[in-house]
Design brief:
Layout (H helix, E strand, L loop, with lengths): L7 H20 L3 H22 L8 H12 L10 H15 L1 H32 L5 H4 L23
């Protein structure tokens, strides 16, 4: 599996593109199986989004997957009636009736992101413990060279205008 390298925006675009493709595939199925197939395809997309987002953008993983679900479900939205209002009502109805898939996928991405964050924090803590510390006598020693003034104090900067 590749290392996580997607930014928050990249993870959002990847998951949205995958869900649009999943919506198109689900649209080809019979009416009763469309939303179930879409929900089943949503879960691996959530897992991959949680795994492939880079460590600096971990919080974006669980945020972008519900947005990708809402965009991708448009082809299989129920009650695609006349005009824009019918499409919006069909989208809202589909989101309400299939909230379990939406919450489940978001939970999958959230758990993966939390586990990755905990592992990153524990690895950083282990690295910090393994770094040898300087003895206290070396830490308290005065600085040498042009930075140190008399008695080990730092020389004041001149306040001459340039």
């Amino acid at each position: 599996m590749p290392r996580p390298r997607l930014t928050g925006l990249g993870a959002g675009l990847l998951s949205t593109a995958a869900m649009v493709v999943a919506g198109a595939v689900a649209w080809l199925l019979p009416t009763g199986a469309q939303t179930v197939a879409f929900g089943v395809l949503f879960l691996p997309v959530c897992a991959l989004t949680g795994l492939w987002v880079r460590p600096a953008d971990l919080a974006m993983g669980p945020v972008v997957v519900p947005l990708a679900y809402a965009i991708g479900v448009l082809p299989v939205a129920e009650g695609g009636g006349a005009g824009f209002t019918g499409q919006v009502m069909g989208l809202v109805t589909t989101l309400a009736l299939n909230a379990g898939w939406l919450y489940g996928g978001t939970l999958v991405a959230g758990v993966i992101v939390i586990v990755r964050k905990v592992r990153l924090m524990s690895a950083a803590r282990r690295r910090a413990r393994s770094v040898p510390r300087r003895p206290a006598a070396e830490q308290a020693a005065p600085r040498t060279g042009h930075e140190a003034g008399p008695a080990g104090r730092r020389a004041p900067r001149s306040r001459v205008a340039p």
